[in-house]
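Work Package 3 committed the consortium to producing structural models of liganded targets before the mid-term review. Because experimental data for this complex are still outstanding, the team generated a predictive model from sequence and the ligand definition alone, so that downstream docking and mutagenesis planning could proceed in parallel. The input record is reproduced below exactly as it was submitted to the modelling pipeline, together with the SMILES string for magnesium ion.
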Amino acid sequence: MSLVNYATREITCKIVYYGPGRSGKTTNLQYVYSRVPWNRKGEMVSLATDSDRTLFFDFLPLELGRISGFTTRFQLYTVPGQVYYNATRKLVLQGADGVVFVADSQRSQFAEDIESFRNLQENLLEHGIDIREIPVVIQYNKRDLPNTFSVAYLEEELNFRNVPSFPAAALHGKGVFDTLRSVSEGVLRKLARKLNGSTDAITPEVDRAGKR
Ligand SMILES: Nc1nc2c(ncn2[C@@H]2O[C@H](COP(=O)(O)OP(=O)(O)OP(=O)(O)O)[C@@H](O)[C@H]2O)c(=O)[nH]1
Ligand SMILES: [Mg+2]
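The resulting structure, written out as tokens with the ligand in place, is given here.
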């Protein structure tokens, strides 16, 4: 749930990167961390196993610039994708303002994508949130690998709500900031509607941060 502090003029939002095991969630955060200047980010915290699988979550605090006189802080989290960590996934999802669903484009991982998307809907519902009420962006990751399904096919199978979606190769930084920009815009737009009834699009400064 977004926190708006009028005294310090700060807005804090939580974005959760969700998706099946090894789809590239942690890789997204690592790339963001590597590209954002030091004065706009905090330490990235990763709680992982020896083999680099996320055990609890990754956490990356970012400052994405000022809008309407407010400093916007985004807290990026990843969940552990492995099926048996569902309790942790549900916990990390709590209070999310926006979700990035990182799908693995490889044909061999398609069933896991579908299962994980279903699991996302289920866990949101357990927190009393209908997936249609929260900004969601889909990232089709690993486009650099052979044996992937086409984006058009994945769109048809996964994106029945027609939410913003992006092809990506997070390992090479492709699509990472497009995805982050889109979800943060969605979150801020929703927040603006809640705060003052405005539907004006708000554009955070992800672009600038990503290019420095
Ligand atoms: N070729 C390729 N490899 C990728 C890409 N994105 C991630 N990977 C690799 O895929 C593996 C898993 O990536 P992670 O980011 O750890 O995946 P995760 O979604 O955080 O996995 P869990 O923590 O187990 O849920 C790593 O070896 C990454 O380097 C990509 O776009 N292309
Ligand atoms: Mg991970």
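Reviewers should note the following from the model. Residues 19, 21-27, 52-54, 78, 80-82, 141-142, 144-145, 169-171 surround guanosine-5'-triphosphate (ligand 1) (CB under 6 Å). These observations will guide the Year 2 experiments.
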